[in-house]
Amino acid sequence: MFMFPAGGGSAGREGGEGDAPKILRGTAELTKAANVQHEATHSLLSHRQRTLEDKRMLAEEKKEHQWRSRIAHRTALS
Question: Which long-range contacts (CB under 8 A, 24 or more apart) does 52-60 make?
Fold first, then answer.
């Protein structure tokens, strides 16, 4: 079984104070990357939702136009 050396686990250094800025910097970079990924995903999903709504609206307009065209055609034949 693996055991950390005495002194908190940082071999060769007392207390590991030198690692804290690196860890904080790495954590900040990971947080920033996660935020960028979240924003990109949110933006993409928002765009996709708008596109789907636009397609639905265009389909409804097309149906309405076809309906009006049929009525106009029937009226012209009468």
Answer: none
Number of H helices, E strands in the chain: 1, 0
Phi-psi region of 8 (alpha: psi -120 to 50; beta: other; left: phi over 0): left
Q: What is the per-residue pLDDT across 1-51, written as a single tens digit (0 to 9) for each?
A: 556 566 554 554 555 567 888 888 889 999 999 999 999 999 999 999 999
Say what the pLDDT of residue 77 is: 84
Beta-carbon contacts of 10 under 8 Å, excluding residues fewer than 6 positions away, are 16, 19
Residues 6+ apart with CB under 8 A from 16: 8, 9, 10
